[in-house]
Amino acid sequence: xxxxxEVLKNKRESLGKNLNTxxxxxxxxxxxxxxxxxxxYDKFDSEVFASGFIKIYSKYLGLDVEKLLAVYRRSxxxxxxxxxxxxxxxxxxxKGAKITVTPxxxxxxxxxxFLLSVVGYIGFQIYKFQTPPQLTIFEPSDEFEAKEEKIxxxxxxxxxSTVTVNGLPVELDPIGTFEKEITLNEGVNSITVISKKNSNxxxxxxxxxxxxxxxxxxxxxxQEEIVNEYKVVLKITGASAWIKLDIDGxxxxxxxxxxxxxxxxxxxxxxxxxxxxxxxxxxxxxxxxLEITSSQxxxxxxxxxxxxxxTLECK
Length: 315
What we know:
The chain is of the alpha+beta class. Helix content is 29%, strand content 35%. Helix 4 (47-60) packs antiparallel against helix 5 (65-75).
């Protein structure tokens, strides 16, 4: 079975382009292009980046993006799921000795609990003073695929800390939450959030997120929606004819139509037409008349058409 990498490599070679030229034009590093052409998708950080680069690469070569992504997914499926077997643990039963509760014992236990509480509190305050601030990013998630050029980075940290997003300072509210709007570039974007405790460089926490932004995602979806809709015109001329017309699984006509009549429909997936008189029946799709044939000389004909990858296929 041919793979997505083979399709891209063959198309690139047929266009006479080398990997350095493609890398310069698409802003995709040469090593990532080589990974794709060799179907080494395990070398990518995640499936999101692999599919994102394939979109950009296939569009650059003038290939059908969705069709190529379908080939990539079929060749990259994982076969089966790993099963793990768990064993039951035997419960050990122990018999504890009986302890006599006395006022002296209660006093000793209370004193120990108090001392442990004091030591624990002091230790926690020392630990809190000497550790970096906690940093949590609410959105976006790592390896997020953005649909818009601007996104909000939201998170929280210890109150009183100093926060920067990609080197730009961010204001905190009294409880330590923050947000910052970031403008993305096409391709992979790195967003680094740093929180410092009291401007102390040695006590800081940081997180780096990767966000993929493709400018042409919405445009491709819109074009695909427009192409997937076809206009159907059924005409009866010369003589009446019995017609049965099914469109997208729904019956539209099942009767005898009089001559010089015309009806219009819209098809998105498939249509089937049966006519009792081929010579009097005309079926047009997007202004193009389709040929209705019959296996016998009875004058009865049938045609079935499907929309496959934005192409009308009839038989």
